[in-house]
Amino acid sequence: VQLQASGGGLVQAGGSLRLSCAASGRNLRRYGMGWFRQAPGKEREFVATIAWSGGSTYYVDSVRGRFTISRDNAKNTVYLQMNSLKPEDTAVYYCAASKFGSSWFVPGFDETRPGLYDYWGQGTQVTVSS
User: Fold this and answer.
1) CB–CB of 5/34 below 8 Å?
2) pLDDT digits 0-9 by tens, 1-44
3) Among residues 65, 76, 118, which one has the least CA distance to residue 57?
4) Tens digit of pLDDT for each residue in 92-107?
5) How far, in Å, CA of 25 to CA of 3, rounded?
6) Alpha-carbon span 57 to 34, nearest angstrom
7) CA dist., res. 55 & res. 50, Å (int)
8) Which residues make Cβ contacts (< 8 Å) with residue 8, sequence separation at least 6?
9) Between β-strands 9-12 and 124-129, what pairing exists: parallel, antiparallel or unpaired?
10) Which of 3, 67, 84, 124 is most solvent-facing, going by the fewest CB within 10 Å?
């Protein structure tokens, strides 16, 4: 499975960007999908995740209400719509896929853990200027 992230760029604070993650090599409709980010000098951070059906989502507190994760299983693509961007959102954003999709949002299952994801995209840079 290959994941190709795109859509990053330079934007002013308050602006918007839409990231895309296109998968090839396998249909991901049964996979849990997530977005993570890593700022310079910091550890990789969970951002958002979506169940294989698209019916359930979860966000880190710092982006809830501003970011929206969605997926189009017919296109094998996951999106991250980012609105009201802040300078602290500056990071390389990575999409990831987990084979444990059937366990997504089951009580006790932590979808925010990077170790649960099997495939990762190459990352796309998002820079928000103040």
Assistant:
1) no
2) 899 999 999 999 999 999 999 999 988 888 999 999 999 999 99
3) 65
4) 999 999 998 888 888 8
5) 9
6) 9
7) 8
8) 17, 19, 92, 93, 124, 125, 126, 127
9) parallel
10) 84
Dihedral angle computed from the Cα positions of residues 97, 102, 103 and 106, in that order, rounded to the nearest 10 degrees:
130
Closest to 117 measured CA to CA, from 28, 55, 19, 38: 28
pLDDT digits (tens, 9 = 90+) for 35-76: 999 999 999 999 999 998 878 999 999 999 999 999 998 999
**Contact predicate 51/105, CB 8 Å:** yes
The upper half-sphere exposure of residue 31, i.e. CA atoms within 13 Å in the direction of its Cβ, equals: 24
Strand partners, 81: 18, 68
> b or e along 65-91 (b: 16 or more beta carbons within 10 Å of the residue's beta carbon)?
eebbbebebeebbbbbebeebeeebbb
